[in-house]
Design a protein that fits this description.
Length: about 450
């Protein structure tokens, strides 16, 4: 792939002489130039990355949240001295400072991007974490989260099984992603299975595969997720939902690295690293004879517990800012912050649904927001905001419509979303109910 379409030889020689690492990326996000310093800093050879999509090898934690080049294109502003990290060829994390800019043609259309980086003066990993509010897609810089990041870094060279525990919505899957991305198997397959989403018979087939005729619908041979992820990593979410009789098969894979497809007696070998997760207290499942104790000890070689959001409320600000950036892109709104009242409400809520609930609340606010600069408290979900309306920025007509909409939604909830019945209660036509529901689509979808 030629780089001379937008950079001449003289320019490339200059880039190659810099002490900072430099990547030049084309419009397809493929690497078209790597300077000598970049190879020296990361230990990754130029020939190993040229022509590849940058995210497949870059391994920057910043890519997990938002590619710097994408961010430059979105905002039109260059990025200067952004603290982040890269992985070297051995998987170790290198604290760096990143600069990013976009090259444009004479019509001011983007034709390429340049990312330069240098090692951060902060070389101690613990000190580095104190300056970060995210780590491979996980957002938060509380003491508890920094301890999690440190643990992930410490186990990066391990092949041992990991058991992640924590309440629903805390981000166990995000943690599993970070463990895989920093592991020795980071360039291999990563297969995810939600053990609670599949019935018992289908789960066995999904995990271990089957041969033709193994059961009624088995019309041909099929490999399972373990076989498919050979030499890679498999994430078993809601591990305690695996039936007790199937847990023996899983134990055999961990202990011996062997399994059999359903309907056959041929022993097959597999080399897979297992990351498991559960929102239940596994010890209680063992006492209730729903989970094998020996399987627990095999999975729990490296235990990681993710604390609920209510125990790390200092992370709420970072999370809110992250979700605002995310939904600004999604909904095309230039909202950049919240007002003080909104943040106070968000900070004081206990968040039983954890990070997932917070994300849903911010998206709800984006859908309803009539402002273009910040999120107002009146846009938050009804269970969060106070009964008294925040009418500071709404017209009298908007206030009236807002109150009518909430009355309508309350009646629909009470009457199992029977629109005809609610229309009769209000003394209006059913078509009027449909008209009044316009603009409330997001909330209706959540509740129905």
């Amino acid at each position: 792939m030629e780089t001379t379409e937008f950079l001449d030889t003289y320019s490339l020689n200059i880039l190659d002489s810099l002490a900072e690492g430099v990547y030049v990326i084309n419009k397809e996000f493929k690497i078209v130039f790597v300077n000598k310093s970049a190879s020296q800093i990361t230990g990754i050879k130029q020939e190993d990355v040229l022509g590849k999509v940058c995210r497949t090898f870059c391994k920057s934690e910043r890519c997990q949240i938002g590619c710097p080049i994408t961010e430059v294109i979105r905002t039109g502003k260059n990025i200067i001295d952004l603290e982040s990290s890269l992985q070297n060829n051995e998987g170790s994390i290198i604290p760096v400072k990143i600069n990013a800019s976009v090259l444009c043609d004479e019509k001011k259309e983007p034709i390429a991007g340049i990312i330069s980086f240098r090692k951060n003066a902060i070389v101690n990993f613990e000190e580095y974490l104190k300056h970060q509010d995210h780590f491979y897609g996980i957002v938060g810089k509380s003491k508890a989260m920094r301890e999690l990041y440190k643990t992930i870094q410490e186990i990066s060279s391990s092949q041992a099984s990991v058991l992640i525990t924590g309440e629903t919505g805390v981000g166990k899957e995000m943690l599993a992603n970070a463990i895989k991305e920093t592991s020795l198997r980071r360039d291999k397959l990563f297969v995810k299975v939600n053990c609670a989403a599949l019935p018992d018979t289908l789960l066995a087939s999904e995990l271990f595969g089957h041969v033709k005729g193994a059961f009624t619908d088995a019309v041909k041979d099929r490999i399972g997720r373990f076989e498919y992820s050979n030499h890679g990593t498999i994430f078993l979410d809601e591990i305690t939902e695996i039936p007790i009789n199937m847990q023996t098969r899983l134990l055999r894979i961990i202990q011996q690295g062997t399994f059999e497809r359903l309907g056959e007696s041929t022993e097959r070998k597999v080399d897979v690293r297992i990351i498991a997760a559960s929102n239940k207290i596994v010890q209680e499942e063992i006492k209730a004879n729903r989970f094998r104790e020996d399987l627990f000890y095999r999975l729990n070689v490296i235990p990681i517990h993710v604390p609920p959001l209510r125990e790390r409320k200092e992370d709420i600000i970072s999370l809110v800012n992250y979700f605002i950036r995310k939904f600004s892109d999604k909904y095309g709104k230039k909202i950049e912050t919240t007002d003080s009242k909104t943040m106070e409400i968000l900070f004081n809520h206990d968040w039983p649904g954890n990070v997932r609930e917070l994300e849903n609340a911010i998206e709800y606010a984006f859908v309803r927001s009539k402002r273009e600069d910040y999120l107002c408290a009146c846009c938050l979900p009804p269970n969060l905001r106070n009964k008294d309306k925040c009418h500071k920025y709404l017209s009298a007509k908007e206030i009236e419509e807002d109150e009518k909409a909430e009355t309508l939604l309350a009646l629909l909830r009470q009457n199992n979303w029977n629109k005809s019945k609610v229309a009769k209660i209000l003394g209006i036509n059913r078509s009027t109910v449909h008209r009044m529901l316009k603009g409330q689509t997001a909330e209706i979808k959540r509740e129905q």
